[in-house]
Amino acid sequence: MGFHCLLSLLCLSSIIGLSYSLRLRTWLSDKHEASLENEWKFNPTRVRQLSWHPRAFLAEGFLLDEECDHLVELARGKLEKSMVADNDSGKSIMSEVRTSSGMFLNKGQDEIVSRIERRISTWTFLPVENGESIQILRYENGQKYEPHFDYFHDKANQELGGHRVATVLMYLSNVEKGGETIFPNSEVSESQLKDDMWSECAKKGYAVKPKKGDALLFFSLHPDARTDPDSLHGSCPVIEGEKWSATKWIHVRSFDSPVQHPRPANGECVDEDENCPQWAATGECEKNPLYMVGSPELAGYCRKSCKPGEKKTMRTQQPSMSVLLFFMVLFDLSEGCHPQDSLGLLGFKAKIHVDTSGRLATWLGQDCCKWQGITCSGTTGRVTHLNLPGFLSSEEFFGQTRMEGHLSSSLALVTFLHVIDLGELLGLYGFIPPDLGHGLPHLQKLSLHRNNISGPLPDSIGHLSALQELNLNDNRLSGSLPFSLGRLANLNTLNLFSNMFSGTIPTSFSSLKSLQRLDLHGNSLTGNIPDKFGLLENLEEVDLSNNRLSGKLPLSLGSLASIKVMYLDSNHLQGEIPFPSGSNQLPFLGFLRLQNNRLSGRMPSSLGNLGSLQRMYLSNNQLTGPIPSSFGNLTSATEIFLDGNRLSGRIPKTIGRLSSLMFFNAANNQIEGPLPSELSSLRNLQTLDLSFNRLNLSLVPDWFAQAPSLCRIYLAGCGIRGAVPDIFRRMKSPILELDLSMNHLTGGIPPWVGSLSQLYSLNLSSNSLNSEIPATITDLHDLGVLDLHSNKLTGPINQIFRIGSRFSEGSLTYVDLSDNEFTGGAEEMGGGVQYKVQFLKLSHNFLSGRLPISVGRMESMKELDLSFNKLQLGLPETVANMAALESLKLQYNRFTGSIPGGFLRLKKLRVLDLSHNLLVGRIPQGKPLTDFPDSSYAGNAGLCGRPLSPCKI
């Protein structure tokens, strides 16, 4: 009896660090364990913390649909009006507080019920015998349960197993609207965003929507067994549909065989456990009074040792003896280091079930200060550093390691920790224990980045007053950013990027006066950038990109005197660029990214005052006006991206002063010509993109040939006329990429193209070229991208498949020759070595012959389009070797025979069109072929079988 009660209290404590296997071995018989091998297993990774006050957790998919339906059927036809417990007598009475109908199942009523009861025990760490029978409830339209407590106020019910310590509420159906479970006193009520899909009742506290199969666990008692008023909860009225649920209440002691506390006739106090004197000596009477001493209604277990009525001297608070004792049973603690540190570290180890590095296996012996990854203070002997990063670099080992398991709250016992580095372990999951925020007053660095941690960021993190560096990036953390983070006065680095945070950026962040690096990119943050961000005088790097931030850019950003990096791109920001407002603002800003927003207004000339600026990205906004001539003052600039705006006028001659400039992109604007010859003096310019402007170049200026480093040229849609300009064969620097698409080029592809020996990408599409492909094109051994679509090119395509022949698999990855007048046999596709190609588009030509068997060697192919040609004969079985194929278009040809059965192996296929051929026979049955619509096979009179009409026998 004492052990079960002790275990119950332990399970309530947030610092337990036991692994899954240890718990099973402690609780379950061998027979029970064997039975679990063939049943649905509880998956702890699908549990997320909802609140810490009250302690509430949600397990997604806790029940299978079949289990939900089974419980409903057991109750159907047996429901009666629900009752409530009278606070004075404990008797069940009817009340308008609760208007649902319900019934109780028998414990272990059938195998499914037994299985669910065991699963609940697995999740809650509470024995099956401590639970009441499952109650099935039905809420019809308008029915509800007003907010109430699950713990008892009367004496009678407390005699039966003690207080209800936990409640598991399982949702057996979806509800169209209403029926939410609400916690009016929850600490996170105000941070939960609710739209019109929530009922008005749900907006009065933290609410959980009923979803079939999910289960809600919340505790009615604190870890020290005090009743928790924050556990007040209720069921909102059902507005549309009906709600089925199942409730399991769990008690402190066995509910099956309630234990009556012996009370001697002479009135003397007694101890019910031989360990009572030891527990009392360590202060357990004060720390766990309900268990040790009891209450006026219920006697405690150690009344003799505690001597109720006598005053006790105050003690320095230490971990509960019940917790320490339980761990000491499991682990043989040595005397080599502080016992509390050993307990905390071994509790952490117990939660880790995979460690590919083997470091935790060394955690043996007399002194924890000698364990791998542990550093102790030379003066106090206490553990100060826990360093177990996932990526290791040493003379013995270099590479990635992995740990899998929960992050244990027992680390809060290691109270002198300065550093916790568990970053890049890849496999830590579950929640961040709130206890870490309360129990580590000396912690300066917390790194849990690149793991699989989920749930909200505990508000208690704001209590880590010594914290200087917080790295939680690349996890699955969600919810709002705690306002309490603004209390971390010593914080200099805050990395929360690549998570699933939502809500607004707390205004309290403006209080982080020591902050130097703030990275929140890759979340779902909304609202405005706080106006007082300019108060962060030490901030050097800020990245808020790839969120959903809106509103105007705060003028105060111009006051960030130390800022070097400002990334605000890929949001919904609006209005003008307000900074810098003076010549002395942002003196150290080197990297500015504002692209992919909705910024408008004229391009501010004050940007030319940013003398330290190296990279500026303003792409894809709605900026207007000319490019300011003041940009010529950006002499440190190496990259300027202005594409995708509404800029007009001419490119200023002052751009020629930017001697460090390497990349200049002003594509997709309304810029006019002529181009300034000063561009040729940019000795470091490598990439120039002026595509889709109003340049009307007609001829490419001669000064292009004088640009010493220019190797990537994009002049698509610039009005170039006549033959392909031969100026490009006279460039000082070898051309790597050339895009002259969507111009007015005529004539043929010049043979000198083959002399561009380092060319990787050539795009001459959407012109009026009308020659054959020159044989010299096979000299382009490094060519990876060739786009000639929408011209009038003729002749065979065999030369294309000989490009890059010095490589065993060719060099091309992307080929588009569609919408031309090519002729010849499709067999030429197999006459070369282009086996690396991923995208091959040959549609709308005059190709004939059969598809060669060797096409199956193109195993990297993702998209193959041969539609609208004159291809014939059968489809080769080898097409099935293209395992990466996502799109196959062969419509409007003359293919005959049946569809090869091997096509069923194309598991990644998402687009298929075999229509309007001469195919016959039964369509191979199975995915993915039967998933496509009948239009994919239309126009083949001899085809049958799903999705077409059945075949005739």
From TrEMBL:
The cellular location(s) given in this protein's UniProt record come to:
Endoplasmic reticulum membrane
Q: Looking at the record's lineage, which domain of life comes first?
A: Eukaryota
**Where is the Fe2OG dioxygenase domain positioned along the sequence?**
130-252
Cofactor(s) it depends on: L-ascorbate
Catalytic activity line of the entry: L-prolyl-[collagen] + 2-oxoglutarate + O2 = trans-4-hydroxy-L-prolyl-[collagen] + succinate + CO2
Q: Name one Pfam family in it.
A: LRR_8
Protein keywords: Dioxygenase, Glycoprotein, Iron, Leucine-rich repeat, Membrane, Metal-binding, Oxidoreductase, Repeat, Signal, Signal-anchor, Transmembrane, Transmembrane helix
Q: Which SUPFAM superfamilies match?
A: L domain-like (SSF52058)
Extent of the signal sequence = 1-21
Topology in the lipid bilayer: Single-pass type II membrane protein
Matching entries from PANTHER family are given as: LEUCINE-RICH REPEAT-CONTAINING N-TERMINAL PLANT-TYPE DOMAIN-CONTAINING PROTEIN, OS10G0469600 PROTEIN
What family does this belong to?
Belongs to the P4HA family.
Q: In its UniProt entry, what is this protein called?
A: procollagen-proline 4-dioxygenase
**What species is this protein from?**
Aristolochia fimbriata (White veined hardy Dutchman's pipe vine)
What does the organism's lineage look like at the top? Eukaryota, Viridiplantae, Streptophyta, Embryophyta, Tracheophyta
